[in-house]
């Protein structure tokens, strides 16, 4: 397996990423949650790569070894991912996103549906305003593996998402799997249900693991994703 850590120039910044699997296998893009990086998928990626698939797990801007340039709008992260795929010559990929990475993934699917073959959203809420709003976070002491400005910016957007994010959900017409973490998750599960209801080709599954589904119950997460990707492979076009 190729598990080198690499970098690429995309959207004017340097993005670090990890890869697994044969170079000529179908591509799968894994987008991590806020505060994590591409290494968060290390327990999942080798099994997905055995498909065989070529797995790409970038560090989003402001995270890990990627640049921390400021400008942390969800749309900017979306454009980073779009440019990342272009820089690597990937015309179309399956996309799996967790939490913040899932929001970036659905914005990519709305904006450039030709790039996303199938979409998996792990414990990703609908973009509804928070009521009450999330209070200002306090910065932890010491060095952080992410840019604190990213936390401030994404909190602000989570409190008041742009209405167009919800308005454009109907553009996500590719097969989509939504995996919820159940009642112990910090994400309101009714929002995942609302998101599934508005997508044209969605299926929903609950794995009672809390917000970190792929970390807490990796075997069940993998089984669900593998079944979804494989069944979509067999679906006539």
From TrEMBL:
Residues 26-133 form the AB hydrolase-1 domain. Keywords: Hydrolase. The keyword Hydrolase applies. Pfam families: Abhydrolase_1. One of its GO terms (molecular function) is hydrolase activity. The keyword Hydrolase applies. PANTHER family: HYDROLASE ALPHA/BETA FOLD FAMILY (PTHR43194), PEROXISOMAL MEMBRANE PROTEIN LPX1 (PTHR43194:SF2). This is Alpha/beta hydrolase. It comes from Streptomyces violaceus.
């Amino acid at each position: 397996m190729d598990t080198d850590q690499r970098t690429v120039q995309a959207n004017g910044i340097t993005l670090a990423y990890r890869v697994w699997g044969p170079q000529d296998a179908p591509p799968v893009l894994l987008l991590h949650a806020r505060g994590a990086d591409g290494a968060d998928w290390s327990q999942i990626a080798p099994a997905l790569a055995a498909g065989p698939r070529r797995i790409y797990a970038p560090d989003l801007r402001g995270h890990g070894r990627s640049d921390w340039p400021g400008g942390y709008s969800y749309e900017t992260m979306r454009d980073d991912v779009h440019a990342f795929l272009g820089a690597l010559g990937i015309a179309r990929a399956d996309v799996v996103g967790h939490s913040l990475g899932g929001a970036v993934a659905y914005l990519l699917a709305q904006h450039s549906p030709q790039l996303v073959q199938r979409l998996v959203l792990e414990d990703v809420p609908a973009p509804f305003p928070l009521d009450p709003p999330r209070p200002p976070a306090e910065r932890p002491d010491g060095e952080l593996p992410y840019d604190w400005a990213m936390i401030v910016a994404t909190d602000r957007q989570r409190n008041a998402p742009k209405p167009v994010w919800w308005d454009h959900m109907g553009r996500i017409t590719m097969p989509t799997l939504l995996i919820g973490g159940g009642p112990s998750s910090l994400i309101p599960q009714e929002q995942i249900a609302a998101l599934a209801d508005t997508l044209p080709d969605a299926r929903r599954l609950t794995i009672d693991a809390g917000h970190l589904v792929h970390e807490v119950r990796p075997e069940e997460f993998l089984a669900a994703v593998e079944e979804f990707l494989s069944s979509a492979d067999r679906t006539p076009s």
